[in-house]
Amino acid sequence: MKRAAWFVALVALGWSAWDTGADPVRFVRGLPWIFDILGRMLPPDLRVLPAALLGALKTVEIALLGTAVAAVLALPLGVISARNVAAPPLFYPARVVLNFFRSVDTLVYALIFVAAVGLGPFPGVLAVIAYTTTSLAKLYSEAVEGIDRGPVDAITATGATRLQVLRFGVLPQVLPLFLSYVLYRLETNIRAATVLGFVGAGGIGFYLQTYLRMIDYPAASTVLLVTVAMVMVVDALSSKLRERLV
Amino acid sequence: MIHVAGLRVVLPPAAVILDAIDLTVRPGEFLVVLGRSGAGKTTLLRAINRLVEPTSGIVRVAGRSVTGASASELREARRRMGMIFQQFNLVRRARVIENVLAGRLGYVPSLPSVFGAFPRADRELAMECLAQVGLATMAERRADKLSGGEQQRVAIARALAQQPSVVLADEPTASLDPALTGSIMDILRRINVERGLTLLVSQHQLETALAYATRIVGLRRGRVCFDGAPGEVTPAVAEAIYGENG
Fold it and tell me: What is the rounded end-to-end Cα distance, in angstroms, of chain B?
């Protein structure tokens, strides 16, 4: 059994390498070109810095607004997807819906929303909401499933309504976790939002793509550096906040 | 005050936890249910407020039918039954006063309470209940900062805030230092005598039960095996409740 599993895994990996044309020699031959591009990126063209910074700001806005709206929308969805609080007629369909929508990436949603509402940051916000709502709902529901049953029993025993039990028995137990998940999603959404511009959904990705297409490597490198700085700053802030929560 | 007839609880797949329980608790009684662990004491208490759903049988409390009650009738019945748990079951991250206020959830309008709005009279009542267990100065502390004995007193205050006619206490001293057993049982006796509350308390400790109860019910393998005054608990009766044989 164990041997068969190893065999299957090796065959799958071997096939994947062959089918994708993975070739170390080709990679090594390509290396000089990478250095060539990197070399042509230097020095960064700082004249595009204001544009890059504006783009970065847009990206942060897309991620911030999208994550915040999703954090709220995910609340009811997360509760009805938790096995220990939701009734089975709600729970099973909710799980199917979550898993379905979660399997589509933010970038794919962006393509759909750009087609629906036109170019700009707004379809980017919608894309972030679409993906993050379901992915947060999944995380929420797992947090709810991990709660201590005791306080829920105690609140139920007072004659509280279902809503009150959620508010007083469940929410206090999961709130710090929820906030921590939201911050974590904000970090990943900043990263996801940097490429939204590639499909016309606004933010810094638009500038990166434009300069790369114009083969203006010094300008592109400025945009890249701003992107890296933006992601690092948001990550640092967010993880500081998360440390204080748990 | 509490009327139980033909109560049977079977948990899936086929574990008979309680069988053919007939029990009438009269107003003002301090009834202690004795039995080894696994005898069904906890299930009996939880079946009375339907935290555990009875398989068959009748439960009436203060003239209201608990079994067969609709969701809203059940909440109304529950709010007149305080419940105290072995593990206290406080909302650990919430403040002490918030935990006591939870006892009012069955009385206050659901939606405002979710946003933390409680009528002033309910807040005053919660403070009074806290004072009655000697913890008025602890109101603003976080519940998990209190010692075990203090937490159980907060749980008693929460039950008192319900203005119950019946208090169900499930092994209220089992997870406390033995030195604290007396202080918790003394508070229960005081609310029994001063407020005339009917108490149904489960205990595994014979000496404690005999010292406080006005009536003892022995439970063995889900059936009542003794029902009488503490004075009638002879060594033979104790053997029947706790003994290894039979």
Answer: 33
Q: Is any Cβ of chain A less than 8 angstroms from the Cβ of B51? A: yes
* Residue B209 amino acid letter: A
| Residue reference for tokens 């997807």 | A81
Q: Is B71 helix (H, G, I), strand (E, B) or coil?
A: helix
What are the DSSP calls for B16-55, one per residue?
Answer: EEEEEEEEEEPTT-EEEEE--TTSSHHHHHHHHTTSS--S
> Which residue is listed with tokens 């079946």?
B47
Report whether A204 contacts A223 (CB < 8 A). yes
Please, which residues 158-187 of chain B have a Cβ atom closer than 8 Å to chain A? 158, 162
What span, in angstroms and rounded, lies between the C-alpha atoms of A217 and A215?
Answer: 6
- How far apart are alpha carbons B246 and B243 in whole angstroms? 8
Position A167 confidence tier, pLDDT thresholds 50, 70, 90: very high
Entry pTM: 0.81
Pairing of strands B56-61, B30-34: unpaired
Q: In terms of Cα–Cα distance, which of B119, B111, B49, B53 is closest to A161?
A: B111
* B198 min Cα distance to partner chain A (Å): 17
Do the Cβ atoms of A157 and B83 come within 8 Å?
yes
Question: Is the ipTM value over 0.95, yes or no?
Answer: no
pLDDT score, position B128:
95
Is residue A67's pLDDT more than 60? yes
- pLDDT of residue A47 exceeding 90: no
* Contact between residue B137 and residue B154 where contact means Cβ atoms under 8 Å apart: no
Q: How far apart are CA B69 and CA B66, in angstroms?
A: 5
Tell me the shortest Cα–Cα distance from B196 to chain A, in angstroms. Answer: 20
